[in-house]
Amino acid sequence: MKEVKEDVLKDIFARTLNVEKEIINDDFKYGEAPNWDSVNHMSLVAEIENEFGISLEMDDIIDMSSFKKAKEILEKYGIKIVEG
Amino acid sequence: MKNKVLKYLKIIPFENLKEEEKKLVWRWRNNEKIRNLFFNPNFIPYEDHIKFIKSLKSSKNKKYFLVKYKDEYIGVFNFTNIKNENNKKLAELGTYINPENSKPAYAYLVGLAMKQKARELGIAKLIAYVFPNNQAAIKYNKFLGFKEKGIIQLKKYNKNFEVLKMELNFEEENLK
Lengths: 84, 176
Fold this sequence. Notes:
The structure holds two protein chains of two kinds. Chain A has helices spanning 6-17, 38-52, 58-63, 67-76, and strands at residues 2-5, 79-82. Chain A is mainly α. Chain A has a single domain, classed as Non-ribosomal Peptide Synthetase Peptidyl Carrier Protein, Chain A, CATH 1.10.1200. Chain A has a two-stranded parallel sheet with strand order 1-2. The longest helix of chain A is centred in the middle third of the chain and has 15 residues, at 38-52. Chain B has a single domain (2-175), classed as Aminopeptidase (3-Layer(aba) Sandwich), CATH 3.40.630. Chain B has a seven-stranded mixed sheet with strand order 1-2-3-4-5-7-6. The longest helix of chain B has 15 residues, at 106-120. The radius of gyration of chain B is 16 Å and the shape is globular. The interface between A and B is medium-sized, with 16 and 19 residues.
């Protein structure tokens, strides 16, 4: 399992959704969080896939509805998000 | 990913809807979030909805579809005013996503289904009319490949509307 600092994932969210990194936490959710709409969701998926060199299954793309859920899904692909 | 996903997408013509699916679509269409995006925002009585679905069987210029991904109903799209112009098939597009349980990527999946069906039907160009303040729809249409063609006046249901005309040319799409 590859360990990646949470900050790296926060950077991807902040950059893709054009939001301040400070507002991203486990409660950051699709449809509620600023700018996280259906179009930006697909950009977010593409950025995550590029950054970690993985290809997400469609079921996971649909389930990735919060920052917390994104961390859980990444674990399935061998990427453990750790504090820092 | 596209091909892997397409096998799980079911595109159901409205004429083939089961009773519970007819009710689901009727509920969605009358949902306030959806109604307000239509040129006709009035509540549609169930009898009218059923009559409309029956009328589609004999209609050649409009087609409506419900989209299912695995076990989830995810949205609706339709082609209306289907016509031939200079030997090319044109149609107007209408689409909406499940307003009761919208999940990330549903809009993307409905877009995939819509494009697949348009290609199957030999549609060369799709036209979408969007209210200029509906930024979400404009952004989504651009994501699908639509291009802005300018603000125009459009008459629907005996009313004039100011709308943004957008077009998706499949011949250009296929060159990409």
